[in-house]
TrEMBL record, chain A:
<feature type="transmembrane region" description="Helical">
    <location>
        <begin position="191"/>
        <end position="209"/>
    </location>
</feature>
<dbReference type="GO" id="GO:0016020">
    <property type="term" value="C:membrane"/>
</dbReference>
<keyword id="KW-1133">Transmembrane helix</keyword>
<keyword id="KW-0914">Notch signaling pathway</keyword>
<comment type="similarity">
    <text>Belongs to the APH-1 family.</text>
</comment>
<dbReference type="GO" id="GO:0007219">
    <property type="term" value="P:Notch signaling pathway"/>
</dbReference>
<keyword id="KW-0472">Membrane</keyword>
<keyword id="KW-0812">Transmembrane</keyword>
<feature type="transmembrane region" description="Helical">
    <location>
        <begin position="65"/>
        <end position="85"/>
    </location>
</feature>
Automatic annotation (TrEMBL), chain B:
<dbReference type="GO" id="GO:0016485">
    <property type="term" value="P:protein processing"/>
</dbReference>
<keyword id="KW-0812">Transmembrane</keyword>
<keyword id="KW-0472">Membrane</keyword>
<comment type="similarity">
    <text>Belongs to the peptidase A22A family.</text>
</comment>
<feature type="transmembrane region" description="Helical">
    <location>
        <begin position="185"/>
        <end position="200"/>
    </location>
</feature>
<feature type="transmembrane region" description="Helical">
    <location>
        <begin position="91"/>
        <end position="115"/>
    </location>
</feature>
<feature type="transmembrane region" description="Helical">
    <location>
        <begin position="355"/>
        <end position="375"/>
    </location>
</feature>
<keyword id="KW-0256">Endoplasmic reticulum</keyword>
<keyword id="KW-0333">Golgi apparatus</keyword>
Amino acid sequence: MTVAAGVGYVLIALGPALSLFASVIAKKPFLILTLLSSTLFWLISLIILAGAWRAFLPVKSTELWPYSILILTSVGFQEGIRIGFWRLFKKMEDMLNAFADRVSKPRLFLTDKMQLALAGGLGHGLAHAVFFCLSLLTPAFGPATFYVDKCPSIPFFLISAIIALGFVIIHTFSMVIAFNGYTEGKRKDQIFVPFAHLIAALITLINLVPGGCNIGLPLLCIMAGTTLYYNWQLVWRRLTEHQTTRSSD
Amino acid sequence: MDDGSTDSDPVTAGESSILDTLGEDVIRIVSPVSLCMLLVVLLVSSLSSTNDLSSSVSSLFLSSTTTPTSFSSLNLLLLGSDSTWEEIKSALVTALSFVVVVTLLTFLLVLLFYFRCTNFLRIYMGISSLFVLSFLGGFIFLLLISHFKIPIDPFTFAILLFNLSVVGVFAVFMPKFPISMNQGYLVAIGVLTAYWFTMLPEWTTWALLIAMSLYDLAAVLLPIGPLRLLVELAMSRNEEIPALVYEARPVDPQPGDRVRVWRERTDVRIEATENSTNSANVQTVQETRLAVSEEITAPLIEAFPQTGDRHLGTEEVEDGIGLGSSGAIKLGLGDFIFYSVLVGRAAMYDYMTVYACYLAIMAGLGVTLLLLAVYRKALPALPVSIMLGVVFYLLTRVLLEVFVVQCSSNLLMF
């Protein structure tokens, strides 16, 4: 539906990501590099998943169970990769600290580490939005629109843009939560992230039912809001604890 | 354990963390490469809207929601017509002849450089960039004007084109020109040449890319390679090679910048590419170079003995890419062009391949820069990126597309 609508869909999916990028990440070149590498990481995990599932596609049935297996395996794989990502992040942190010692500059601050986690999460969210939403938006720049059978009330592009928005938020902030959880060793945070991801992915299964997207979309946005809130509480707690320990020296 | 002091709040302490400036050099080379690729993708997608194989993913997607997707239709999309074997043969012949021509011309370049005909080389490159900007640029502007129906009269067009090309030639070859104009015009030349290359048939483009990256690998690393000879000649004479090279210097140097010290042997690597099309005898010679240079006020180039545990003072940092603030990584224009050709050709299929190939090329560039920091020699910038780009293009087309379309058409995302 014309260029304006196409641009509108892109902005719906990527608006918060763009503002995060412009305000936090664009200022520090290293964060841009972290973003690019985490996007690449997510793409590689997606390609591996696609390779593993290639033989079974296309799934012609309209039953629920093949799709649920698809979702479960994909989410499980990606959460497993997240732990590997965290190990890489630790190694990078050590290298950066060693480098900082060599140039006699201060080591990584807590806010630095959180910004790195944010950049990593934003990279994942960006990759999700790009590959699941943006790459299919090309017809939206043309003169018509498209509706899926199972959801005749909302254009397909709008649904995928909103889902992408939800997942951008979930991916971005669950990375911050996960890194904090692994660093501090808190079980609650570590378990929250895979659960949130799994629940969000399972919510999209509701879209398989005719008319289900009317329920699925709001639920997904609620899930994104929950992740955001949890992250907010965690970061707030962490920063105030940090301030008090520092000022009590 | 003074954890508190090392973790002090940067805002109140007024200190800056290393995260503020680390990686600046790399970003300064990643941005123009990305800009060049973006412009080529925009040109390709806006000017080839008559190509009905564009947005094939969306056509696949539309067919998958209405009818069961059959693998034959997928195969048809992938293979195109049934004279594929003929296309592949002609593509291989074209690519091979191109590489042979480039090798001969590079040897000619080495010979000329050996006989100190640098003025001749500089004038030749000035004329070739004039050709690129005026003829190729004019051609592409005409395409844009006719596509978007821009109202412009021939005289304005001629004056604009003349002005832009002449200023472009000066910007690229005058030493004291503002650096931002130099960089901008280099990116423009890269965009125009890359768009020209994407007009080749599909198999030819891919064969050409792979052949050029193999040639690049051989020419730089083999002892008899022409580029390596050129590098050693330039090094032994302490001269600059006349070349079209993008220099990632900052536009306005801040006061108090630490002067960059990449201690290396100014091993520069040159690749001369010559493009002769069938229709127009446009001769374009561009030389590419990936080198890391030092910008010290005293033009002293230290031979860097490769001792293992050489410790430099606190002013100089030895390793890591993008340390210091006025480092100048130089990337040759041919690399810009071939990266953009790959992405432009991916854009002719669909945007998903564009994103995947862009990420692959960035990864390859990062790996090359890392290797450069480790080995400190002249390194070819093409092979890693192009190979990764081709691999990702194939993987996306064969594996990823079906998976993503299957999931998205059922509104299943994770």
